[in-house]
Amino acid sequence: MTNNHTCPMDEEPMCLSPQLNAPAPDFEAKTTQGIKKLSDYQGRWLILFSHPADFTPVCTTEFIAFAKAYPQFQSLNCDLLGLSIDSNFAHLAWIRNIKQNFGVEIPFPIIEDLSMDVAFKYGMIQPGASDTSAVRAVFIIDPHSILRAMAYYPMSNGRSVNEFLRLLQALQTSDKYKVATPEGWQPGDKVIVPPPATAADAEKRKDEGYEYVDWYFCKKSL
Predict the structure, then answer these.
(1) How far apart are CA 146 and CA 46, in angstroms?
(2) Model pLDDT for residues 32-62, shown as the tens digit of each residue
(3) Confidence of residue 130 (pLDDT cuts 50, 70, 90)
(4) Residue 128 host element (H or E)
(5) How far apart are the C-alpha atoms of 110 and 81, rounded to whole Å?
(6) Which of 8, 145, 146, 185 has its CA 20 to 30 A from that of 209?
(7) Rounded Cα gap, residues 105 and 29, in angstroms
(8) Where in the chain is the domain with CATH 3.40.30.10?
(9) Which CATH topology does 8-159 take?
(10) How far apart are CA 193 and CA 209, in angstroms?
(11) Are the beta carbons of 220 and 181 closer than 8 angstroms?
(12) 7, 15, 59, 78: which one is catalytic?
């Protein structure tokens, strides 16, 4: 099948989409806080997120929301890293403008990606949505540099920062307790017990002390 989308310098592997539960694509990039590499975040969670352009209203609301939630992300051992296909000078002017007009400091770095190298590695360039700007993409990367979650939003609609806080907490809870979390789960809610793998275990499940609905559907409090 012919791919009509051309990667930078025809380096086709750069255009492969990132994969969940696989190593996150490596990068080294200039940012508003100096050179940043994926390896800089080893041992911490990282939320890498792209926006279409500096000095745009929807992106401004998102950056303000990420900045206000920054202490909560930090308390969860998580760093934030923004990206757009704009120059570092544009990034610096924009964050100064946000501080002047909205009174909000942007505490996290923003990647300059004029070459679109990082954007292509992470599939942020979506033909049909935009060929020259990164769409609103979010990637949650764990302390071992494994990509654990990702979401792509259209150019026209802003993201919910609270949802990424919630998802981060859900992922951390699943890792720690080896459980799943139901729709809309919030810290303190009951979690889902993994279903049994054998007929014998399924038969015993109703007597194991969980909130039992059926052998495959049980909840518990942590």
Answers:
(1) 10
(2) 999 999 999 999 999 999 998 999 999 999 9
(3) low
(4) none
(5) 6
(6) 185
(7) 22
(8) 8-159
(9) Glutaredoxin (3.40.30)
(10) 11
(11) no
(12) 59
Q: In whole angstroms, what separates CA 123 from the centre of its chain?
A: 13
Considering the chain, tell me which residue range(s) the CATH 3.30.1020.10 domain(s) occupy. Answer: 178-220
Tokens of 121: 């590695």
Strand pairing category for 110-112 and 78-84? parallel
Q: Is 78 annotated in the active site?
A: no
The distance in angstroms from the start CA to the end CA of the chain is 49
64's CB contacts (< 8 A; 6+ apart) are 98, 102, 104
144-202 pLDDT per residue, tens: 999 999 999 988 899 999 999 999 999 999 999 999 999 999 999 999 999 999 999 99
Name the nearest CA neighbour of 185 among 213, 158, 163, 209. Answer: 163
- As given in the structure block, the two tokens for residue 217 are 């559907």
| Domain at 178-220, CATH from 3.10.20.90, 3.40.50.700, 3.30.1020.10, 3.40.50.1110 | 3.30.1020.10
Supply 182's token pair: 């139901």
Q: At CA 117, angle to CA 112 and CA 120, rounded to 5? A: 120
Residue 190 φ/ψ, nearest 5 degrees:
-70, 155
